């Protein structure tokens, strides 16, 4: 644990010694090498879905651990190509995105139809592909915030992808339509033997109040996760929670005092444990996002990995921190994340 402790610095004891009291680890379905057999095997998932799930879990440096490290690069649409790739123009070329995922030891690469289709014959059999089927584009004026379909399930199947990904903006005015669209897409994806990953985001300007951003509150993101697994997302992608009490601060919806008084403290591992609980106690894996690139990306990525793993999560999906820098540095960050999950001394809290 020496390298991890060194990177965590003064936060080392705070993050590595914490024990969750509200929701204990023995209530969770934790990642392990037999996760597909143990958790998905008894479910309604078909043999082709199980095969593709196992292909994802058996790839990269984290192969057969039950943990996942995925490189997501859909930001060319979600944040614009200029904003995403100008810091490192080599990633305008889709092949370099896939090369980064392979060199970085990832279980899979998640990207757009254009990116993956352009190199599918060369790489789809070398690293698991996950096709992101919907996006929010930022060229309409004024900017809108709505996930619309860009690709189909059949296109994912035909290029040899193991699965699809989609985003829902829970809480947005368009969320009802998005839930119905993605639910139908996930059902058809499972029929075609593809696994499903949901980018499970909250979005509504009212979720910011008195200078506090409750888009990343444990209670609201937890409920988004619960809706995501309801439409049979096999894996949930969620932002790391940084606060709690979105329901109470905004005075809407329904919640319970135990969420704040018994199940959660303000410790980030407890807040993330509540996210895991809302993924059917870990039956659907929680992968947290790495966030935007900044000054201390390596340290922040390792912190996030430690929080996710100790909370009972399944891994990290880290993009901008890895591709908005030279490839060697991106590989270093991806490997540092993976090292946390390979380190048996980083235990479940």
Automatic annotation (TrEMBL):
Its EC number is 4.1.2.13. GO terms for molecular function: fructose-bisphosphate aldolase activity. Signal peptide: none annotated. The keyword Lyase applies. The keyword Lyase applies. InterPro entries: Aldolase_TIM, DeoC/FbaB/LacD_aldolase, DeoC/FbaB_aldolase, FbaB-like. GO terms for biological process: glycolytic process. Keywords: Lyase, Schiff base. Pfam families: DeoC (PF01791). Belongs to the DeoC/FbaB aldolase family. FbaB subfamily. This is fructose-bisphosphate aldolase. It comes from Uabimicrobium amorphum.
């Amino acid at each position: 644990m020496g390298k991890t402790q060194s990177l965590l610095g003064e936060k080392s004891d705070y993050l590595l010694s914490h024990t969750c009291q509200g929701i204990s680890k023995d209530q969770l379905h934790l990642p392990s090498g037999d996760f597909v057999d143990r958790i998905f095997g008894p479910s309604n998932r078909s043999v082709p879905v199980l095969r593709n799930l196992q292909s994802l879990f058996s790839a990269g440096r984290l192969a057969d651990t039950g943990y996942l490290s995925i490189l997501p690069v859909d930001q060319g649409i979600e944040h614009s190509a200029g904003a995403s790739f100008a810091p490192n123009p080599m990633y305008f070329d889709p092949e370099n995105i896939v090369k980064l995922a392979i060199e970085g030891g990832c279980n899979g690469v998640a990207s757009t139809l254009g990116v993956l289709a352009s190199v599918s014959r060369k790489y789809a059999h070398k690293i698991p592909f996950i096709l992101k089927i919907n996006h929010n584009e930022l060229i309409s004026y004024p900017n809108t915030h709505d996930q619309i379909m860009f690709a189909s399930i059949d296109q994912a199947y035909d290029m040899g992808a193991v699965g699809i990904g989609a985003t829902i903006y829970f809480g947005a005015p368009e969320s009802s339509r998005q839930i119905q669209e993605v639910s139908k897409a996930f059902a058809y994806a499972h029929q075609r033997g593809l696994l499903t990953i949901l980018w499970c985001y909250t979005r509504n300007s009212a979720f910011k109040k008195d200078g506090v951003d409750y888009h990343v509150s444990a209670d609201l993101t937890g409920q988004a996760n619960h809706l995501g697994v309801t439409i049979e997302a096999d894996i949930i992608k969620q932002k790391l929670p940084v606060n709690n009490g979105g329901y109470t601060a905004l005075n809407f919806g329904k919640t319970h005092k135990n969420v704040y008084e018994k199940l959660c403290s303000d410790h980030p591992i407890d807040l993330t444990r509540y996210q895991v609980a809302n993924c059917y106690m870990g039956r659907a894996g929680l992968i947290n996002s790495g966030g935007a690139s900044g000054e201390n990306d390596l340290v922040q990525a390792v912190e996030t990995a430690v929080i996710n793993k100790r909370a009972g999560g399944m891994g990290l999906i880290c993009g901008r921190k890895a591709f908005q820098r030279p490839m060697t540095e991106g590989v270093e960050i991806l490997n540092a994340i993976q090292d946390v999950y390979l380190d048996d001394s980083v235990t479940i809290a």
